Amino acid sequence: MDLNDYHRGGVDIDNDGDYELPNIFGRASDSDSDVEDLIEARLSEFNSKNELEGSDENTKGPQLGFASSISDSLSIYILENKQKGIGFQLWPAAIAMCTFFDKLIAESSRELFVGKNMIELGAGTGLVGMYGAALGAQVTLTDLEAVLGNLEANVELNPVVKANGSIDVKALCWGEDQLKYTKGAYDYVLVADGIYWEFLFEPLLQTLIALASTDTVVYVAQLRRRKLENRFFRRAAKYFEVNSVFDLPMEGLKRSVNIYEFKALK
Which pTM value belongs to this model? Predict the structure, then answer.
């Protein structure tokens, strides 16, 4: 998918105070009207539970973003609520990871991810893992407890992604919960824009070490913002072979999303 196809403007409020659904590209189910009804109902429920005090017309309620045309026949719908924090919004690295999956499939086989076990750390809105499930993977989406409600809502909005694979949503706090998961149980470990706060560098690395065996492929997608991030990669190189495998320039920015492959050292 080209990044130009990604719409992130959110949901507008019409004169009656209702949410106006943006135009939908691609196909998310057999009936777009069914999808729109589901989204409207979910937005209404979500908004009633998450009313924001002191909101002005530019910061009302949850937002709806979506990634369009990730494949020729798929759209994924994303509920965002940016006022609640970074775990409630869609980030460029997630789009880049999906584009990278398309590249891998084009270079190998459409069956590349079918039946594979995949876990996403810091899944946020869940786009990457949902796309993995759409490609046939058995996916575990993980994040902090506070994020899981919105993550589950996004899975509910996108039943089409489970047609070929499966999705399970679980809590995983980096540096604390990783030992509850079996080392080597996953073929792929995914992190999209997770290298953000320096105090989480070590907990994230501990989690990757606990999950990845020598047969595991770890993909880390990162919009490189600061030199500070180099500390994480230098630290990771003590435990993993780290290689840059994909670079996606961001239109309008002098930066790219880089994707790195980590392979546990023997």
Answer: 0.77
